[in-house]
Amino acid sequence: MDPTPPPSCGSPFDMVSGALANYIPRAGTTAAADPAASPDDHHAGRPAGADRKSGSQEQILGAVNLDRSLRITSCNLDAAPFDGVSAAPGAAFADLLPPGDVPTVTRRLQRVLETREAHVARVQRLRREDGTELVVSMSILPAAPPQEGLTVSLIAMAKRLHLYASAAAIGTSLDIGETAQSLAQSLLAWGDVAAVDLDYAVWTGEAVTEQAQERIRLRRAALVPDRPWPEGYLTPGDNLPREASRLLAGAVMRDDVPQAIVIPDREPIERALNDPKLVRALVPGDRPVSVACIPLVVEGPEGTPGPIVLGVTEVWRRPERLFRDSELLDLQELVAKTARHVDLARQHQREHAQVLALQRRLLPRAGSDTIEVASVYQPTNPDSAGVGGDWVNSFPLPCDRTALVVGDVVGHGLGAAAAMGQLSMEARALLSAGLGPGEVLERLDETVTLLDDTDAGLAAGYSALGSTCCIAVYDPVDNRMVMSNAGHLPPVLVHPDGSAKTLTAQPHPGLGAEFAVREPFDVQEFAAPPGSLLTLYTDGLVEDPAASIDDGIGRLTEVVREVHPCDDLQLAARRVVAALAPQGRLRDDVTLLLARMAGRRSRDTASWQLPARDDSAARTRALASPLLRRWDTSDQARDSALLVISELVTNAVRFGTGPVTVRLVRARGRLSCEVGDAGNGRPRLRRGELLDDGGRGLHVVHKLTTRWGVRWTNTGKAVWAELEA
Questions:
Q1: pLDDT tens column, 487-517
Q2: pTM
Q3: Exposed e or buried b per residue across 652-689, where buried means at least 16 C-beta atoms within 10 angstroms of its C-beta
């Protein structure tokens, strides 16, 4: 080979062109070295012998010179690998690129123009005139002064370099689809069309252990290049017909050993498929074509008889370009490295699905006739750190009240999901047991501290310290709400007249924050008249790196103010998320709960306040009896209700202090009775002895009601009971 031109050649374009001129074998030399080459064996002015010898000359250089408007001024793409790449002077360099790559490459070119810092060795695709693509290694160099513009150097057929770059790039995502797409794009360097078909179990995160051909189910995960395909051809997301799955699985599992296979022409391919429908589904186009099928194989778990096939990759190209043994080895090496990443993505997908199932299980179900709820949950993408610990919940409480809870557990993945589930269930149990929002947060604070001790938390590599939670309890009779907040973002309340405010509480550092100065959880009480809209959310909805969190909350306030009282609440919740959540890939979970207050009709409720005297029980019966008749309760239900009310008032007078409050609520075929006093003693149901005089009242209440319990209030306690109407 002639020596390379000296550096005094001038511009980088001249240097690359000079190197290229010396790198490409001269036609006469090649012909002499290959006496078997005939004059008819040339392709685009290059002897066929050069193709056969190209295995030892993988790196073929080309160069394109651009002006400042990124248009081609001159080029040297005469080498055979660049056949079909049209780079006419005056054309835009973007015309050489696939449409999806144009914005990214244009930004890189303009950056080199502005900074004059070279952009070196990025894998890039170029378009051929026949619609196929060529994979090259592309470097962008600034033109040497006094010239302006750029020189783009291209290295085609650099298979080993491409193999290294692809293997390094494919494992950067834990998303199965993106991993498969990266593999397909890398495989395109060896052919004209590349496809990746994965076992259905890979998508669901299941362990792939069954290798019986009749159980194989494949789904197309990736297909390149991205262009219109004939009707019936399988594209990403399509399930392969069972016959095709069995044929592909059988082809690569010869003698129970996964192997790469090559079918050199269209005729044997059609003969193997033996079905025109399968040919349309699997073979790209009607032209002559050959295919190499390489299995994605991982070692099976302990106890399995051999390796596990996760799927099949297919590389299609023109039959005159035979697959050489060295190419098949490269393909197998790349696919083998990718198989590990696919299996890791499968395991991550399984964890993602488990956490997501738990998260969705905690989402609120339907509301009630006193409150309407709607929720939206959008998890982070599967290739992120994992689903986070965001959760919202709403559930009914005794005496017609409703609890609304939102929380954000620190971290992502199974550790955060386990803590999230524990805190959510504990909050529900404590609220149902009658504790107020502030008392519940105190218990959750202790729980988070326990979760973080050496045995339960740090030893498992997870800490829930700093998790946040906000609890609100809605009373539809009084149309009031009680709320307590542990470090969470403030809810937004929109009044029926359209005015809105954020419900800020006394600052608190969050749950389990022992290092902070401990203060009681602030408890707020505020009016929530019918038609009010309460918004609970997590930070993923309002956080924006380019703005403050207060700006995000302000935008949320403006958006929820636009929700009309007659709007479908679930559709409104989706509109709110669409207006605020970042487009594209999510950095954090997005969680939203909208609650619209309806209240309880006044004719379905009644309340009285009586002094703590011996005749209060009789007085309550006299007030309640005509009311129950107006409510059309049955005689048996009315007698039971009067007896229960009498027993509860008697206990309040006997064991409590201060005035006695009585509240009756009729709702959906049941009666709710609540009797409050200023005492703090908890009534307990005990098994009485034969001669005991006391304690029989609670047994009567227990027998006549469907359920009963105690709720703690700011002034004492309230004993409630529910009966069938």
A1: 899 999 999 998 999 998 777 788 887 555 5
A2: 0.59
A3: bbeebeeebbbbbbbbeeebbbbbbbbbeeebeeeeee
